[in-house]
Amino acid sequence: MRDYYEILGVSRGCDEAALKSSFRKLAMEHHPDRNGGCEEAEGRFKEINEAYSILSDPQKRARYDQFGHAGVNGGGGGGPGSGQFHDVNDIFNEVFGDVFGDMFGGRRQRGGPARGQDLRYDLEISLEQAYAGSEVEIVVPASIQCEACDGSGAKPGTSPTVCGTCGGAGRVRASQGFFSVERACPRCGGSGQLILDPCVECRGHGQLRKERTLQVRIPAGVDDGARIRLAGEGDAGARGGPRGDLYIFLSVKPHELFDRDGLDLLCTVPVPMTVAALGGDIEAPCLMGGENCDGACKIEVKVPEGSQTGRTVRLKGRGMPSLRSRERGDLIVELFVETPTRLSARQKELMRELSDLCGEQQHPKSASFIGKAKRFWEEVTGV
């Protein structure tokens, strides 16, 4: 088992400041969140935490200096699985505080201002809105600072008093054998203050719940699952703390004509059998205007002669815009050859005449299939 001083890179006679400085540097370097979940970094991170949990405690450090690992294993924390994670969390709160505050949702100073909570709002938009971008009005229920008491929670003209139990720290510490456990003050709930005469408007909370109307700009090209952050539009902070943020999660409604594949738009368009056979022009829906596309969002598509169902025609630059560049996707039109129905007697007569005139050259796939099927039957039946 490695020496704890060696793990932290300090000498045995180092003071508390040097110990904390080395731990802070190493823990930030090997923190799993900064190393993409690397198992090696996670193992090193746990090793660093274990070493600091022992050496930062004067009693544990003295036992370790005298007896080595035997002096701390089992009696005051130590190896993996010994319940050290409570100590690790306490160490992190103490040592890193403001460094990791934003990463874990904000950390308030004891008894001081607290950052408001972040809010989530799920917003469903149409494909047209995602294509062109738009501005949407939303109504968000959020906490706001009480104007009557300026967020203090105390009746106007009065002020909160310092909690006598924790002395304003908001935390109390209790010793249990070799361990010292810190928890929120039960009397003031961790605020460090007591409100003896609460505000009538907010009933001592310092905040009120209210619906707020916001304008949200949807950028062109957003995709399903995109997230928009509105800084400072979340819940109000406690005791004058900053507001949290509002995160808007977008979902794009399914469209009755288009499917989306990245920046490309896919659309299946029926084509009359005669147009598919002879070639010609058809109209397809389009989300963008411009050349060869009128205000009704129709675009002309040239159908090659002899087109079959499933054939695609790609229209460059007619797809979705990109969020991060001027690039645009394509509109991919898939042709679906439609067989005519409810034919008149004359139409049926003409169709029979056409059928009699058409041979293998006009139906190459049918001829190929019949040949393969014939060989299959011969192999099976032996005839």
From TrEMBL:
CXXCXGXG motif repeats lie at residues 146-153, 163-170, 185-192, 199-206. The keyword Lipid metabolism does not apply. PROSITE patterns: DNAJ_1, DNAJ_2, ZF_CR. InterPro entries: DnaJ (IPR012724), DnaJ_C (IPR002939), DnaJ_domain (IPR001623), DnaJ_domain_CS (IPR018253), HSP40/DnaJ_pept-bd (IPR008971), HSP_DnaJ_Cys-rich_dom (IPR001305), HSP_DnaJ_Cys-rich_dom_sf (IPR036410), J_dom_sf (IPR036869). Binds 2 Zn(2+) ions per monomer. GO terms for molecular function: ATP binding; heat shock protein binding; oxidoreductase activity; unfolded protein binding; zinc ion binding. SUPFAM superfamilies: Chaperone J-domain, DnaJ/Hsp40 cysteine-rich domain, HSP40/DnaJ peptide-binding domain. Pfam families: DnaJ, DnaJ_C, DnaJ_CXXCXGXG. It is found in: Cytoplasm. A zinc finger (CR-type) spans 133-211. One of its GO terms (cellular component) is cytoplasm. GO terms for biological process: DNA replication; protein refolding; response to heat. Homodimer. Participates actively in the response to hyperosmotic and heat shock by preventing the aggregation of stress-denatured proteins and by disaggregating proteins, also in an autonomous, DnaK-independent fashion. Unfolded proteins bind initially to DnaJ; upon interaction with the DnaJ-bound protein, DnaK hydrolyzes its bound ATP, resulting in the formation of a stable complex. GrpE releases ADP from DnaK; ATP binding to DnaK triggers the release of the substrate protein, thus completing the reaction cycle. Belongs to the DnaJ family. PANTHER family: CHAPERONE PROTEIN DNAJ, DNAJ HOMOLOG 1, MITOCHONDRIAL-RELATED. This is Chaperone protein DnaJ. It comes from Phenylobacterium glaciei.
